[in-house]
UniProtKB/TrEMBL annotation:
Keyword Amino-acid biosynthesis: no
Species for this entry: Anaerofustis stercorihominis DSM 17244
The protein, known as: GTPase Era
Protein keywords: Cell membrane, Cytoplasm, GTP-binding, Membrane, Nucleotide-binding, Ribosome biogenesis, RNA-binding, rRNA-binding
Gene field: era
Binding site for GTP: 14-21, 61-65, 123-126
GO BP annotation list: ribosomal small subunit assembly
């Protein structure tokens, strides 16, 4: 290994829906963290690994900071708050808007107390002019704890190489923590459950997706066949939501299953036989035993 090899942990923090997962997938060169236009899409800290000949970056994608409304929300905010403890670099992701909102102010107050280098990443610059980008930079230049400011567009891929160079600059020399072909420390089951949940988020009405969770019950390769059998439960809080998820004559569930299967096959590189069931778990977001069984357990995150 290169004697100058660098490695470290990088936390990506920001308000909900600022593009953290989109940026992470771009940095990795493949999709690991789910993406939708709904706030609070990411529920867990997800560790993802980018390895090159000169460095290994372990990124932590976090739930966005928001006002908790359930035990699940409490969990999401808590793991987000823990994500920037004991890391080497913090990426503070903000949007292209021309003000510093209350959510960003909340994060600024937290981050200014940290000794870890903070890199401000201004996302979605493809939506604004160069003059507006300079104006956004000026808003944050007064904060001493921000070491660098990098404007990017995660959607368009603008300035990503520059961002990587800045991150490497602040990483210490160190070992390769994970095998070089490893891209996440999460299991395939977890990634598959998240891909299915993404399709639910993209397909259903505003009030329903945040009341859903997905649990993969079976994942098994058939003997002597290039085929996986996967079975998963979709949990929702209400009977009428279950009917909406299934749809008329099963049309919505069929669409969710078909969209999910295509992406799972691409990820696994093999054919998939996917079966989905929808079950009601009343008020599951406020029941700790159910949250634990679904993997929303803070002890497992740290």
């Amino acid at each position: 290994m290169n004697n100058n090899f660098k490695s470290g942990f990088i936390s990506i923090v920001g308000r909900t829906n600022v593009g953290k997962s989109t940026l992470l997938n771009l940095l990795l060169g493949q999709k690991i963290s789910i993406v939708s236009n709904r706030p609070q899409t990411t529920r867990n800290n997800i560790r993802c690994i980018r390895t090159t000949g000169t460095s290994q970056m372990v990124f932590i994608d976090t739930p966005g900071f928001h006002k908790p409304k359930s035990k699940l929300s409490d969990y999401m905010v808590e793991v987000a708050g823990e994500s920037y403890k004991e890391v080497d670099v913090i990426l503070f992701l903000v949007e292209e808007d021309t003000t510093i909102g209350k959510g960003d102010e909340f994060l600024i107050e937290k981050l200014k107390k940290e000794k870890t280098p903070v890199i401000l990443v201004i996302n979605k610059i493809d939506k604004i002019t160069k003059e507006e980008i300079l104006g956004k930079i000026k808003l944050y230049e007064k904060y001493d704890f921000i070491k660098e400011i990098v404007p990017i567009s995660a959607m368009k891929g603008e300035n990503i190489n520059e961002l990587v160079e800045v991150i490497e600059k602040y990483l210490p020399q160190g070992p390769m923590y994970f095998p070089e072909d490893m891209v996440t420390d999460r299991s395939e089951r977890f990634v598959i459950s998240e891909l299915i949940r993404e399709k639910i988020l993209r397909s259903l009405k505003e009030e329903i997706p945040h009341g859903t969770a997905v649990e993969v019950m079976l994942m098994k390769k058939r003997n002597n066949k290039d085929l996986y059998d996967i079975e998963a439960n979709i949990y929702t809080e209400r009977e009428n939501h279950k009917r909406i998820i299934i749809g008329k004559n099963g049309s919505m569930l069929k669409k969710i299953g078909s969209d999910s299967r295509r992406e799972i096959e691409e990820m696994l590189g093999t054919k998939v036989n996917l079966k989905l069931w929808v079950k009601v778990k009343d008020e599951w977001r406020d029941k700790q035993n159910i949250l634990n069984s679904l993997g929303y357990n803070k002890k497992d995150e740290l």
